[in-house]
Amino acid sequence: MAIHDFNAQRLWLEATLTEGGEIAVTRDQANYLRNVLRLNDGEEILVFNGRDGEWRARLTTIGKRDCTLHLACQTRPQTAPQQLIYLFAPLKRARLDYMVQKAVELGVGRLAPVLTHRTVADRVNLDRMRANAIEAAEQCGILSIPHIDEPQKLEARLADWPAGTPLIFCDEGAERANPVDALSNLAARTPAGSQVAVVIGPEGGFDEAERALLIGQPFVTALSLGPRIMRADTAAVAALTLVNVMLGDWR
Q1: Dihedral sign for Cα atoms in the order 113, 92, 204, 197
Q2: What is the tens place of the pLDDT at every residue in 15-30?
Protein backbone atom coordinates (compact mmCIF):
# COMPACT_ATOMS: atom_id res chain seq x y z
CA MET A 1 0.00 0.00 0.00
CA ALA A 2 1.26 3.49 -0.78
CA ILE A 3 2.53 5.55 2.14
CA HIS A 4 -0.03 8.11 3.27
CA ASP A 5 0.93 11.76 2.80
CA PHE A 6 0.44 13.07 6.35
CA ASN A 7 0.81 16.67 5.17
CA ALA A 8 -2.22 16.37 2.88
CA GLN A 9 -5.71 17.31 4.02
CA ARG A 10 -8.37 14.65 3.46
CA LEU A 11 -12.15 14.76 3.17
CA TRP A 12 -14.71 11.96 3.24
CA LEU A 13 -17.44 12.20 0.60
CA GLU A 14 -20.60 10.17 0.08
CA ALA A 15 -20.51 10.55 -3.72
CA THR A 16 -19.08 8.03 -6.18
CA LEU A 17 -15.50 8.89 -7.16
CA THR A 18 -14.39 8.52 -10.80
CA GLU A 19 -11.74 10.18 -12.93
CA GLY A 20 -12.87 13.57 -14.21
CA GLY A 21 -15.88 13.63 -11.92
CA GLU A 22 -17.32 16.89 -10.59
CA ILE A 23 -18.76 16.77 -7.06
CA ALA A 24 -20.83 19.52 -5.47
CA VAL A 25 -20.00 19.34 -1.76
CA THR A 26 -22.46 20.16 1.00
CA ARG A 27 -22.65 23.64 2.52
CA ASP A 28 -20.95 22.37 5.69
CA GLN A 29 -18.15 20.81 3.67
CA ALA A 30 -17.77 23.97 1.59
CA ASN A 31 -17.45 26.02 4.77
CA TYR A 32 -14.85 23.57 6.08
CA LEU A 33 -12.82 23.69 2.86
CA ARG A 34 -12.92 27.46 2.45
CA ASN A 35 -13.03 28.84 5.99
CA VAL A 36 -11.36 26.17 8.13
CA LEU A 37 -8.74 24.76 5.75
CA ARG A 38 -8.67 28.10 3.87
CA LEU A 39 -8.32 26.47 0.47
CA ASN A 40 -8.48 28.72 -2.57
CA ASP A 41 -9.58 28.03 -6.13
CA GLY A 42 -7.27 25.54 -7.82
CA GLU A 43 -5.86 24.10 -4.58
CA GLU A 44 -6.06 20.36 -3.98
CA ILE A 45 -7.29 17.99 -1.32
CA LEU A 46 -7.44 14.19 -1.03
CA VAL A 47 -10.93 12.65 -0.95
CA PHE A 48 -12.30 9.16 -0.28
CA ASN A 49 -15.66 7.48 0.25
CA GLY A 50 -14.77 4.03 1.60
CA ARG A 51 -15.58 2.38 -1.76
CA ASP A 52 -13.55 3.90 -4.59
CA GLY A 53 -10.10 4.48 -3.09
CA GLU A 54 -8.47 7.85 -2.51
CA TRP A 55 -8.44 10.65 -5.10
CA ARG A 56 -6.76 13.99 -5.62
CA ALA A 57 -9.38 16.70 -6.13
CA ARG A 58 -9.15 20.36 -7.14
CA LEU A 59 -11.37 23.00 -5.56
CA THR A 60 -13.55 25.33 -7.62
CA THR A 61 -15.61 28.06 -5.96
CA ILE A 62 -19.15 28.80 -7.11
CA GLY A 63 -20.67 31.91 -5.58
CA LYS A 64 -20.05 32.92 -1.97
CA ARG A 65 -21.07 29.73 -0.20
CA ASP A 66 -20.77 26.81 -2.61
CA CYS A 67 -17.89 24.94 -4.20
CA THR A 68 -17.21 21.83 -6.25
CA LEU A 69 -14.36 19.36 -6.39
CA HIS A 70 -12.89 18.16 -9.69
CA LEU A 71 -11.42 14.65 -9.43
CA ALA A 72 -8.01 14.53 -11.07
CA CYS A 73 -6.48 11.10 -10.37
CA GLN A 74 -6.61 8.21 -7.96
CA THR A 75 -3.77 8.24 -5.43
CA ARG A 76 -4.54 4.89 -3.74
CA PRO A 77 -6.85 2.00 -4.69
CA GLN A 78 -9.54 0.90 -2.26
CA THR A 79 -8.38 -1.54 0.41
CA ALA A 80 -10.43 -4.50 1.62
CA PRO A 81 -12.69 -3.91 4.65
CA GLN A 82 -11.03 -4.65 7.97
CA GLN A 83 -11.99 -7.96 9.59
CA LEU A 84 -11.76 -6.83 13.22
CA ILE A 85 -15.11 -6.51 15.05
CA TYR A 86 -15.38 -4.54 18.28
CA LEU A 87 -18.28 -5.17 20.66
CA PHE A 88 -18.61 -2.69 23.52
CA ALA A 89 -21.01 -1.39 26.12
CA PRO A 90 -21.70 2.26 25.19
CA LEU A 91 -20.05 4.90 27.36
CA LYS A 92 -21.02 8.47 28.08
CA ARG A 93 -20.43 11.05 25.40
CA ALA A 94 -16.79 12.23 25.52
CA ARG A 95 -15.32 8.85 26.38
CA LEU A 96 -17.38 7.13 23.70
CA ASP A 97 -16.06 9.67 21.17
CA TYR A 98 -12.50 8.83 22.19
CA MET A 99 -13.10 5.08 22.10
CA VAL A 100 -14.64 5.17 18.62
CA GLN A 101 -11.76 7.25 17.24
CA LYS A 102 -9.12 4.92 18.70
CA ALA A 103 -10.95 1.82 17.50
CA VAL A 104 -10.96 3.18 13.94
CA GLU A 105 -7.26 4.05 14.17
CA LEU A 106 -6.58 0.49 15.34
CA GLY A 107 -8.27 -1.06 12.33
CA VAL A 108 -11.75 -1.98 13.52
CA GLY A 109 -14.06 -2.76 10.60
CA ARG A 110 -17.32 -3.09 12.54
CA LEU A 111 -18.46 -1.27 15.67
CA ALA A 112 -21.15 -3.16 17.57
CA PRO A 113 -22.73 -1.51 20.64
CA VAL A 114 -24.09 -4.11 23.07
CA LEU A 115 -26.46 -3.30 25.90
CA THR A 116 -25.56 -4.92 29.22
CA HIS A 117 -27.04 -4.92 32.70
CA ARG A 118 -24.55 -2.23 33.80
CA THR A 119 -24.53 -0.06 30.67
CA VAL A 120 -24.56 3.56 31.84
CA ALA A 121 -25.36 5.43 28.61
CA ASP A 122 -29.08 6.15 28.26
CA ARG A 123 -29.01 6.09 24.46
CA VAL A 124 -26.50 5.65 21.65
CA ASN A 125 -26.10 8.42 19.07
CA LEU A 126 -25.12 6.45 15.96
CA ASP A 127 -24.78 9.61 13.85
CA ARG A 128 -22.24 10.99 16.33
CA MET A 129 -20.36 7.68 16.32
CA ARG A 130 -20.20 7.77 12.53
CA ALA A 131 -18.98 11.37 12.54
CA ASN A 132 -16.18 10.42 14.92
CA ALA A 133 -15.29 7.39 12.80
CA ILE A 134 -15.11 9.56 9.65
CA GLU A 135 -12.97 12.18 11.40
CA ALA A 136 -10.51 9.53 12.59
CA ALA A 137 -10.30 8.02 9.09
CA GLU A 138 -9.73 11.45 7.53
CA GLN A 139 -6.89 12.26 9.91
CA CYS A 140 -5.13 8.89 9.80
CA GLY A 141 -5.11 8.04 6.10
CA ILE A 142 -7.63 5.21 6.48
CA LEU A 143 -9.66 4.36 3.37
CA SER A 144 -12.59 2.45 4.91
CA ILE A 145 -15.25 3.63 7.35
CA PRO A 146 -16.33 0.91 9.80
CA HIS A 147 -19.87 -0.37 9.70
CA ILE A 148 -21.79 0.69 12.81
CA ASP A 149 -24.45 -1.72 14.07
CA GLU A 150 -27.66 -0.80 15.82
CA PRO A 151 -27.39 -1.34 19.60
CA GLN A 152 -28.38 -4.85 20.61
CA LYS A 153 -28.68 -6.69 23.91
CA LEU A 154 -25.64 -8.84 24.67
CA GLU A 155 -27.76 -12.00 24.90
CA ALA A 156 -29.28 -11.43 21.46
CA ARG A 157 -25.90 -10.69 19.92
CA LEU A 158 -24.41 -13.93 21.22
CA ALA A 159 -27.45 -15.96 20.15
CA ASP A 160 -26.91 -14.84 16.55
CA TRP A 161 -23.12 -15.14 16.50
CA PRO A 162 -21.54 -15.94 13.09
CA ALA A 163 -20.09 -19.44 12.89
CA GLY A 164 -16.32 -19.62 12.77
CA THR A 165 -15.66 -16.15 14.20
CA PRO A 166 -13.69 -16.22 17.46
CA LEU A 167 -14.74 -13.76 20.18
CA ILE A 168 -12.09 -12.57 22.62
CA PHE A 169 -13.67 -11.69 25.96
CA CYS A 170 -11.63 -9.23 28.04
CA ASP A 171 -12.49 -10.69 31.44
CA GLU A 172 -11.44 -9.08 34.72
CA GLY A 173 -12.12 -12.40 36.42
CA ALA A 174 -9.97 -14.50 34.07
CA GLU A 175 -6.93 -16.27 35.44
CA ARG A 176 -4.12 -13.72 35.27
CA ALA A 177 -1.60 -14.70 32.62
CA ASN A 178 0.53 -13.15 29.93
CA PRO A 179 -2.13 -12.07 27.39
CA VAL A 180 0.24 -12.72 24.49
CA ASP A 181 0.65 -16.32 25.62
CA ALA A 182 -3.09 -16.60 26.12
CA LEU A 183 -3.72 -15.56 22.49
CA SER A 184 -1.05 -17.80 20.98
CA ASN A 185 -3.19 -20.94 20.78
CA LEU A 186 -6.05 -19.02 19.19
CA ALA A 187 -3.66 -17.42 16.70
CA ALA A 188 -2.25 -20.82 15.73
CA ARG A 189 -5.67 -22.02 14.56
CA THR A 190 -6.90 -18.74 13.07
CA PRO A 191 -5.73 -18.09 9.50
CA ALA A 192 -4.35 -14.65 8.72
CA GLY A 193 -7.06 -12.32 7.44
CA SER A 194 -9.86 -14.11 9.28
CA GLN A 195 -12.64 -12.26 11.03
CA VAL A 196 -11.94 -11.81 14.74
CA ALA A 197 -14.01 -10.04 17.42
CA VAL A 198 -13.26 -8.42 20.78
CA VAL A 199 -15.79 -7.64 23.50
CA ILE A 200 -15.30 -5.24 26.42
CA GLY A 201 -17.89 -4.58 29.07
CA PRO A 202 -19.17 -1.44 30.77
CA GLU A 203 -17.70 0.41 33.73
CA GLY A 204 -18.06 -2.05 36.58
CA GLY A 205 -17.74 -4.98 34.20
CA PHE A 206 -20.23 -7.63 33.17
CA ASP A 207 -22.38 -9.06 35.93
CA GLU A 208 -21.98 -12.71 36.90
CA ALA A 209 -24.83 -13.95 34.69
CA GLU A 210 -23.37 -12.18 31.63
CA ARG A 211 -19.88 -13.41 32.43
CA ALA A 212 -21.14 -17.00 32.74
CA LEU A 213 -23.00 -16.64 29.45
CA LEU A 214 -19.86 -15.45 27.67
CA ILE A 215 -17.56 -18.08 29.14
CA GLY A 216 -20.05 -20.80 28.23
CA GLN A 217 -19.90 -20.05 24.49
CA PRO A 218 -17.64 -22.39 22.44
CA PHE A 219 -16.38 -19.49 20.29
CA VAL A 220 -15.27 -17.34 23.27
CA THR A 221 -11.69 -17.03 24.55
CA ALA A 222 -11.39 -15.27 27.92
CA LEU A 223 -8.44 -12.90 28.22
CA SER A 224 -6.92 -11.09 31.18
CA LEU A 225 -5.47 -7.64 30.51
CA GLY A 226 -3.13 -7.89 33.48
CA PRO A 227 -3.02 -6.85 37.14
CA ARG A 228 -4.58 -3.38 36.78
CA ILE A 229 -8.25 -2.54 36.38
CA MET A 230 -8.62 -0.27 33.34
CA ARG A 231 -11.40 2.05 32.35
CA ALA A 232 -13.36 0.74 29.38
CA ASP A 233 -11.86 3.13 26.83
CA THR A 234 -8.31 2.32 28.00
CA ALA A 235 -9.07 -1.40 27.93
CA ALA A 236 -10.27 -1.02 24.34
CA VAL A 237 -6.92 0.39 23.20
CA ALA A 238 -4.97 -2.29 25.10
CA ALA A 239 -7.10 -5.19 23.86
CA LEU A 240 -7.28 -4.10 20.23
CA THR A 241 -3.51 -3.59 20.17
CA LEU A 242 -2.90 -7.10 21.52
CA VAL A 243 -5.32 -8.64 19.03
CA ASN A 244 -3.72 -6.78 16.13
CA VAL A 245 -0.30 -8.12 17.14
CA MET A 246 -1.41 -11.72 17.56
CA LEU A 247 -4.35 -12.16 15.17
CA GLY A 248 -4.80 -8.97 13.16
CA ASP A 249 -2.99 -7.12 10.41
CA TRP A 250 0.16 -6.45 12.48
CA ARG A 251 1.33 -10.06 12.42
Answers
A1: positive
A2: 999 999 999 999 999 9
pTM comes to 0.90
Q: Which tens digit of pLDDT belongs to each residue from 20-64?
A: 999 999 999 999 998 898 988 999 999 999 999 999 999 987 777
Please choose, from the candidates 90, 101, 100, the residue with its C-alpha nearest in 3D space to the C-alpha of residue 201.
90
Distances (CA, A) of 212 to 60, 159, 183, 217: 59, 14, 20, 9
Element (H, E) at 155: helix 154-159
Q: Which residues contact 213 (CB under 8 A, 6 or more apart)?
A: 154, 155, 158
CA-angle at 98, arms to 51 and 54, nearest 5°: 20
| Rounded distance between C-alpha atoms, residue 204 and residue 220, angstroms | 20
Give yes or no for a contact between 238 and 224, defined as CB atoms under 8 angstroms apart: no
Q: Which of 92, 153, 77, 64 is nearest to 117 (CA)?
A: 153
